[in-house]
């Protein structure tokens, strides 16, 4: 089964505000863009992924992910938030490919490994709807819907509990840390760096003094 992934990306100026606020010295917009580029690049390299659609209103981010081969979708009108953007993305995908399986993927997975993503998607294919909890066990990094199933996203905050309550199957795979490791805080970034991030994130992080980084 080949999946279309929907990746939501906030305007860079407001993305990763918690990370920037907690570490003042870190360039939040640059890191947010780097995270997204590494996420999209890894996703496109996954053998279980047909294509990637990025939902964003940011022109720079849109141009950069499009250069990697992603399709860019504008955010829906109004201020419906993340879940509205994801539902809009899924509808747009299904408008062109009605029987496509669709999965959302967070844009802040800079350590993402194509093989691990493939394992998660192959597991998701066994269920009508399925999700993967984040490394903290509170949120969600991936939500998948089989052909003919509504995505019904319930992200933000304690989304793991909400997706479970909605009837989605929780994927319990081990050794898929790169698909669980989203980055919102300094400690998240450190964990991602320890896993090994993509080239874009590595380049941005290398130019920033981060005292807690292990010496090379």
Structure description:
The chain is an alpha/beta fold and 216 residues long. The protein has one domain (3-206): Spore Coat Polysaccharide Biosynthesis Protein SpsA, Chain A (Alpha-Beta Complex). Helices cover 41% and strands 16% of the residues. The chain has nine helices and seven strands, in the order βααβαβαβαββαβααα. It has helices at 17-22, 28-44, 59-68, 81-96, 114-124, 159-165, 177-180, 186-195, 199-206, and strands at residues 3-9, 49-56, 71-73, 102-105, 129-133, 140-145, 169-170. It has a seven-stranded mixed sheet, with helices on both faces. Strand 2, helix 3 and strand 3 (71-73) form a beta-alpha-beta unit. The chain is globular and about 45 Å long.
Question: Main attributes?
Answer:
alpha/beta, single chain, seven-stranded mixed sheet, 7 strands, 216 residues, Spore Coat Polysaccharide Biosynthesis Protein SpsA, Chain A
